[in-house]
Amino acid sequence: MTMFEELHALATGATLTMTVSADEETGRMTVNVIPRPKKDVDEPALTKALSLTATPQEFDAGFVQALRGYREVRHSLAEQAEATKEVLEAAKLASVKKAGDAASKVAKPAASARSTPAAVATSIHTANNATDDEVENESPVPAATSGGASLDLFG
């Protein structure tokens, strides 16, 4: 590919800013290719600039290959970032499901731990069979209701 074909391929993934400066004393120049992420599309970590310093002849010989290598690495990093994002989203969904399942398991034993009419009747029977000394030391047992009817505690 030519230099402009490589720049075009790179620019399809991000808006590019290029700066070129020259050092007259050394005969070298610096070219910076700076990608700017597209709004809400690109990862900010992929905005690392390509900065090259060489003679004009070296740029003529190797700038296209340097752009190609940069584009391919940047593309690979973008794919890795997207894959990581997908893995994190899947882990988040799995965590939410696991938390929901754990919450429903906790709710079921709590519901079964409530007093049943048979348990209330057993405690009442025990209280009725206690001796007078034991009854004096205990607080009165409240009346329990089952289906709206009161239980007779003294009968």
Report the structural category: alpha+beta
Distance, first to last CA = 101 Å
Beta strands, count: 5
The main sheet orders its strands as: 1-2-3
Mean pLDDT: 75
List its traits.
155 residues; alpha+beta; three-stranded antiparallel beta sheet; two-stranded antiparallel sheet; 4 helices; rod-shaped
Verbal overview:
With 155 residues, the protein is α+β, with helices and mostly antiparallel strands. It has a domain at 3-109. The protein is built from four helices and five strands; from the N terminus they run αβββαααββ. The strands form two sheets. The chain has a three-stranded antiparallel beta sheet with strand order 1-2-3, covered by helices on one side. The longest helix has 57 residues, at 56-112. The N and C termini lie far apart (101 Å). The model has no long low-confidence stretch (mean pLDDT 75).
Layout of SSEs?
Elements: H1 3-11, E1 15-23, E2 28-36, E3 50-54, H2 56-112, H3 117-128, H4 132-137, E4 145-146, E5 149-150
Antiparallel strand pairs: 1-2, 2-3, 4-5
Helix pairs in contact: 1-2
Quick gist of this model?
This protein is of the alpha+beta class and 155 residues long. The chain has helices spanning 3-11, 56-112, 117-128, 132-137; strands spanning 15-23, 28-36, 50-54, 145-146, 149-150. A three-stranded antiparallel β-sheet has the order 1-2-3, covered by helices on one side.
